[in-house]
Design goal:
Length: about 400
């Protein structure tokens, strides 16, 4: 038989609590003893690894002729479907997505200005591959060089910008790798800023999708560069190699790539009805194939999957019991709005489960991680998000803590 402690106020329970405390062998109650931080207590169970959303759908992904590919919902951050997502691949000029990320950071930090003139070095001028056709020892604005890099895929423009940011291309590559690590691109290593072939210059389509989503979300003010269809410099007019910019008005980027060893590559992104999808194609056998495959992947992702908001950052996911605090409960929620992507028509089958530290001990500080919110579909893990404490809960006084210590003995 389980003993249930009568529901008395803390004030009335204090004498009883003190007496029980003195009767329990080995028990030591101290007004100065620190409470156990929530982060030190283990959660009830570790969440299972989420799976790609297409695993819940009966509609197969399109057959694509490419070494590796992936489609990602940029709002939820979930992979919809992929083939060989972690296979090492040569990124070719898709490398310039990371180059752009680091350059945009420099612009935001004030280390670079769009109207700033950059002196073109001999090294930048001599860089092989696609070109903007800048002349050595001339000065070109950062704005023009960005157009040369992202519209024309100019290797000369890219090296000139890398040198302007970091002093040398090798130092710039170190910044690229530092940023890749910060973004969680665990299977990526950059040797140069352009994507020219090197055995140690590799990535994966999964990492490229993570990078592309981060670029789109963090730097919307610079998106006009990769959506620009053509650019004229030095009386030479060149078109953006991303043919989807002409084929589909919802497509607004992102970058093409090609070398003989890498094949034809394309990271494309489209915005339809407020929802953004990123597709990554690596190792297609022609420009037409990468364009057609990318459009198939985007259309399939938009048509067969929905993205919905489950929880706002100000909406509690659960009211959790707090022990030894000035309040008996605390709201736990998510740090950012929680969006999930599901096969179309299956939203009503989504379930959530809050797993949090138990017992949850005061003091608690707003923003502390206290557990995980698990999202499942048909009993399978779909996504998870950290649960954060939404309001600080100070530690209770001596008698309040004493009463809860006794309560815990009977839980």
């Amino acid at each position: 038989m389980r003993f249930t402690l009568p529901k008395f106020s803390r004030f009335r329970l204090a004498p009883l609590a003190l007496g029980l405390a003195l009767m329990v062998p080995g028990a030591v109650w101290s007004a100065d003893a620190p409470a156990q931080p929530a982060a030190q207590a283990a959660e009830t169970a570790a969440p299972a690894a989420p799976v790609g959303v297409s695993a819940f759908s009966t509609i197969p992904a399109p057959a694509l002729a490419a070494k590796a590919w992936l489609t990602l919902d940029a709002t939820s951050g979930q992979i919809i479907a992929a083939q060989n997502p972690e296979m090492p691949v040569e990124p070719a000029s898709l490398t310039k997505i990371m180059s752009a990320y680091v350059i945009f950071q420099a612009l935001e930090n004030g280390r670079l200005q769009l109207d700033q003139k950059v002196r073109v070095s001999e090294k930048a001028w001599k860089t092989e591959g696609s070109r903007m056709f800048i002349d050595p020892n001339t000065e070109v604005s950062v704005d023009e060089l960005l157009q040369g890099m992202l519209v024309q895929s100019g290797n000369d423009a890219t090296v000139a910008l890398a040198e302007a940011v970091a002093g040398s291309e090798s130092a710039f590559a170190a910044l690229m790798n530092q940023q890749a690590k910060a973004l969680g691109m665990a299977n990526t290593h950059f040797v140069n800023s352009t994507g020219l072939p090197d055995p140690d210059h590799t990535t994966t389509v999964e990492d490229l999708a993570v990078l592309s989503r981060a670029l789109v979300q963090r730097f919307p003010q610079y998106r006009h560069y990769d959506s620009q269809k053509e650019f004229t410099y030095n009386k030479i007019k060149q078109s953006n190699r991303n043919r989807l910019l002409w084929a589909d008005e919802t497509v607004d980027g992102l970058k093409t790539g090609h070398t003989q060893s890498a094949g034809y590559c394309l990271v494309a992104t489209a915005l339809r009805d407020g929802r953004r999808v990123v597709s990554v194609i690596v190792g297609a056998n022609s420009d037409a194939a990468r364009t057609e495959s990318s459009l198939k992947l985007l259309n399939w992702s938009f048509k067969n999957f929905d993205t919905l908001k489950l929880l706002d950052k100000d909406t509690p996911a659960v009211a959790a019991r707090v022990w030894e605090g000035e309040a008996d409960t605390v709201n736990l929620g998510v740090e950012h709005p929680l969006w999930v992507t599901v096969p179309r028509g299956q939203a009503e089958h989504i379930k959530t489960e809050a797993r949090y530290t138990q017992p949850l001990m005061a003091p608690l500080t707003e923003g502390d991680k206290a557990g995980t919110l698990l999202v499942s579909l048909d009993g399978k893990p779909l996504k998870d998000a950290p649960l954060r404490v939404m309001q600080s809960v100070p530690e209770a006084g001596f008698f309040g803590r004493l009463v809860d210590k006794v309560r815990l003995m009977f839980e």
